[in-house]
Design a protein that fits this description.
Elements lengths: L2 E6 L5 H12 L3 E3 H5 E2 L3 E2 L2 H13 L3 E4 L6 H4 L5 E5 L3 H15 L17 H8 L1 H4 L1 H11 L4 E5 L2 H10 L1
Parallel strand pairs: 1-5, 1-6, 2-5, 6-7
Antiparallel strand pairs: 3-4
């Protein structure tokens, strides 16, 4: 495992798994949210974002954490491993709310500078509707761009723990 793409719903454990794998495998990490967001929660344009993702994916080894299906064509063909964290909606929503409550107003390392944790109803709707709205993009993206990578679909914290133990 030298190039790992980690996909899944917010609150599912992507960033936590990313940090654990990076430590265990000594791989550099790119959080796509850091590349996408500008200070003050201003979104990048695709013209700004895609070259940043392409540069990260061009490296010899990496863990890239995040969905952004508009960049699957840049990351998934280079990935040797794809990890899809597919936790239940209730788990993801509870964790995202807990994260907001415990980090409100502070910057997390997996977000861009100047983007403090906040209450964002649109974000919680995104989590609630993830299976319906975003899961098809993951399925199609893996089929179209990531078919040569080894795929791990982790559906629970136990699956994640077992996976980390085997690595």
């Amino acid at each position: 495992m030298q190039r790992i793409a980690i996909l899944g719903c917010s609150g599912g454990g992507k960033s936590t798994l990313t940090r654990a794998l990076a430590k265990k495998l000594n791989l550099p990490v790119t959080h796509l949210d850091v590349l996408w967001w500008k200070p003050g929660w201003v979104e990048s344009t695709l013209e700004e974002f895609r070259p940043r993702v392409a540069a990260a994916a061009a490296q010899e080894s990496w863990i890239i954490d995040g969905n952004f299906s508009s960049t699957y064509d840049l990351r998934l063909p280079r990935a040797d491993t794809i990890i899809w964290i597919d936790q239940p909606r209730r788990v993801c929503l509870r964790r995202a709310l807990w994260r907001m409550a415990t980090h409100f107003g502070t910057n997390r390392p997996d977000l861009a500078p100047g983007c403090p944790e906040k209450f964002d109803m649109e974000f919680y709707r995104y989590i609630w509707n993830f299976k319906r709205d975003s899961e098809p993009n993951i399925v199609n993206g893996i089929a179209k761009f990531g078919s040569k990578a080894k795929l791990f679909r982790l559906r629970s914290d136990k699956d994640i723990e077992d996976f980390l133990r085997r690595v």
